[in-house]
Amino acid sequence: MSDDLQYRLTETEEYEEISSEEVDRVVDALDRLIESVQSENIKHYLEEAASNIYYLVYEEEEETVSEDDSMGHAA
User: Fold this and answer.
1) Where are the alpha helices (DSSP H) in 1-75?
2) What is the predicted pLDDT for the residue at 1?
3) Are 46 and 37 in contact (CB under 8 A)?
4) What separation, in Å, do the N-terminal and C-terminal C-alpha atoms of the chain show?
């Protein structure tokens, strides 16, 4: 079942534009929540969620910057 969920999330990501402001707001809220949680298991899941949400926007930007840097150094 998790494979089905992952597939649906991947398909949704291809069509949905997510703003960096929204990602920043959600990650900040999750960070505040993580600070208030005592359970290490819950913290782990919240940290994973925050990381996954962060990379919805910023992973693509980092890859683009890395490609630009490598292209610039090769020239």
Assistant:
1) 2-15, 20-36, 40-74
2) 47
3) yes
4) 47
